[in-house]
Design brief:
The chain has about 575 residues and is of the alpha+beta class. Helices cover about 40% and strands about 20% of the residues. The protein contains 18 helices and 20 strands. The chain has helices spanning about 5-25, 30-45, 70-75, 85-90, 105, 165-215, 240-245, 250-255, 260, 270-275, 320-335, 345-355, 360-380, 460-465, 465-485, 510-520, 550-565, 570-575; strands spanning about 45-55, 60-65, 80, 95, 100, 135-140, 150-155, 220-225, 235-240, 280-285, 290-305, 310-320, 390, 400, 445-455, 490-495, 500-505, 525-530, 530-535, 535-545. The chain has a 7-stranded antiparallel beta sheet with strand order 3-2-1-7-6-5-4. A 5-stranded antiparallel beta sheet has the order 9-8-12-11-10. A 4-stranded antiparallel beta sheet has the order 16-17-15-20, sandwiched between helices. Strand 10 (about 280-285) and strand 11 (about 290-305) form a beta hairpin.
């Protein structure tokens, strides 16, 4: 029996306790630590059976380690008891400082709960402090913050008696040290898992960076990384070989530029809109040789870290061939396939762009309205002495404007019965109206002349020598017409042997002179396959004017051409 008169027993137990506590700190993992805890109880504290019930993340307790009986270990290791059942047990029985003892006289009510337990057979106690097989002794383990880590269960003391004060103190001290060892083991396990996870993430990051590097460097199309924001916004930080080849510049040189330094001046607005928020645009970038190449830019805004700087990842695709093809298709749609001249649709589009629905008479009525205003005021009470002056850039179409808004307290000077009202619809406010010169006299007015040309004698050439010769004649006539006009003028083919010339800024005499020059350019012989053929030309001169449609303008010029053609004999027509 353990008594105060046996100090050598205490000393031996203390030495054994010191040894098993030291072993707790040598375990390499959490599982080793738990097994060391129960082995230390069996070896050093004098109990035949011991187990550790460890708190899981969900709060329940699992039998994590067992020592003393292999059969019992196989039976209950890994089984789980609910947190509620364990809390009930830790509030029953007798409280021995930090321990909880439930005698067999009270423990029978626990036989049916869900806490894993083993049963040992043995005789009933013969004296008061003898250990009964159904007695239960628990040593709760708490972390430094006070939360429950687990519970140590012990059974069958080797001396057959309930532990005395010294035995209780030893078990309590051991449970305290075991809690520290388990907390440290968990911390080490968490650190090891974190290190493994970090290493895996770093490996994944390195693999991702290597994949990105290879995809960036060896991409078949251009790639670039540019700064975003700050004084160096748009500066190229990194470019791949494909972009260097496309622009004809080495990477070291490209790092001195931004895309705004390389873009075509007409495309700078498109670039700025694209780089502001990311997106896609088609524009031209300058090469080293001074030429420009059409590219498609696709920008993606990339953050370097959660709060780190942002960059623009730009994909640059060469679309020069596609743009050339698109221009060719657009040219084919708007130009004659034989002569290369603008076709009928393109001619009408160019002519319609110069015309508006406002009739020319509405323009001319402003002067008349001014005269009528004075006459109307005299008829309604005479002139009041106020002055109306003409100012360059004034409010009216002809620059007439009152001195100020209070110059006419009685209202608008044109506001009288019968006064014509000038149109005020928006599309005409900034439109430069097309004016037709006077038909009977050359008053110096310049307008948009429409010269309608019909070839004389072409049908006989086509019928006699075939379409091949006819096509060659049309091509040569187109060349001679194009050579005979100014750079800004338009020569178009309506179809067949009909051509139209648009020449802006001409007076009536200028247009007549141009028609003569073009006719004289056409009538010289044209050699086709060693054969000389000749055609003549009849010209009709029409004038484009706002208020007319493009078809009306062309019809007017066509009518004048037929008038001119009928006024000349066939022989004279062929001779020009």
């Amino acid at each position: 029996m353990e008594t105060e008169s046996e100090p050598y027993v205490r000393l031996a137990t203390l030495r054994q306790l010191h040894r098993v506590v030291a072993d707790l700190n040598t375990a390499r993992s959490l599982a080793d630590t738990l097994q060391t805890v129960v082995d230390g109880i069996v070896v050093g504290l004098g109990y035949e059976l011991a187990c550790v019930n460890l708190v899981r993340p969900d709060g329940d307790l699992v039998v994590a380690a067992f020592a003393g009986d292999p059969a019992a270990e196989a039976l209950i290791t890994g089984r789980v008891g609910s947190r509620a059942s364990w809390e009930r047990r830790l509030t029953m029985g007798e409280c021995w400082d930090g321990l909880r003892f439930i005698p067999h006289t009270e423990g029978w009510v626990l036989l049916e709960d869900d806490v894993p337990q083993w049963h040992t057979d043995g005789p009933d106690p013969r004296f008061e402090d003898e250990w009964h097989p159904e007695d239960r002794l628990y040593a709760p383990m708490y972390a430094s913050g006070g939360e429950l880590l687990g519970v140590i269960s012990v059974d069958r003391p080797r001396n057959g008696r309930r532990p005395g004060a010294w035995g209780r103190e030893a078990l309590q001290m051991y449970a305290f040290q075991a809690a520290i060892a388990i907390s440290n083991a968990r911390l080490r396990a968490n650190m090891q898992r974190a290190l493994v996870r970090l290493e895996r993430e770093q490996q994944a990051l390195r693999a991702s960076e290597e994949s990105f590097r290879q995809a960036f460097e060896y991409a078949p199309s251009g790639m670039a990384i540019a700064e975003m924001g700050g004084d160096q916004h748009g500066r190229l930080l990194r470019t791949n070989d494909a972009l260097c080849r496309l622009l004809g510049r080495p990477a070291s040189v490209l790092r001195r530029y931004s895309f705004s330094d390389l873009v075509h001046p007409e495309d700078i607005g498109t670039l700025l809109r694209t780089s502001a928020e990311g997106g896609r645009a088609e524009l031209r970038l300058g090469r080293r040789d001074g030429t420009y190449v059409w590219v498609s830019l696709r920008n993606s805004v990339v953050a370097d870290a959660a709060d780190g700087p942002r960059f623009l990842l730009t994909h640059v695709e060469d679309i020069e061939e596609r743009k050339r093809h698109e221009l060719q298709l657009a040219h084919r749609a708007s130009h004659d396939s034989l002569t290369g001249l603008p076709n009928s649709a393109e001619l009408r589009a160019r002519l319609g762009a110069r015309l508006c629905r406002r009739p020319q008479s509405a323009r001319a009525s402003a002067i008349e309205a001014l005269d009528a205003a004075f006459e109307g005021r005299e008829a309604h009470g005479g002139h009041d002495g106020h002055e109306v002056r003409a100012e360059a850039g004034g409010g009216g179409e002809h620059g007439f404007q009152p001195d100020g808004p209070d110059r006419y307290p009685g209202g608008d000077p044109f506001d009288f019965p019968g006064a014509p009202t000038a149109p005020t619809d928006g599309p005409y406010d900034h439109h430069v109206h097309t004016v037709a010169p006077a038909a009977d006299v050359d008053d110096g007015t310049k307008g948009l002349a429409v010269l309608f040309c019909d070839l004389d004698g072409f049908k006989s050439i086509n019928d006699r020598f075939g379409h091949h010769t006819g096509d060659a004649v049309l091509i040569e006539v187109a060349r001679r017409l194009t050579t005979g006009v100014r750079d800004g003028d338009t020569v178009a083919r309506l179809g067949g042997d009909e051509f139209v010339v648009l020449a802006d800024g001409l007076g009536a005499a200028d247009a007549a002179d141009l028609a003569v020059r073009l006719r004289n350019a056409i009538i010289p012989p044209i050699r086709v396959d060693g054969r000389a053929v000749r055609v003549g030309a009849s010209f009709g001169i029409g004038w484009a004017s706002c208020g007319m449609s493009a078809d009306e303008v062309l019809r007017s010029a066509d009518q004048r051409m037929y008038i001119e053609k009928r006024s000349r004999s066939k022989a004279h027509r062929r001779a020009g």
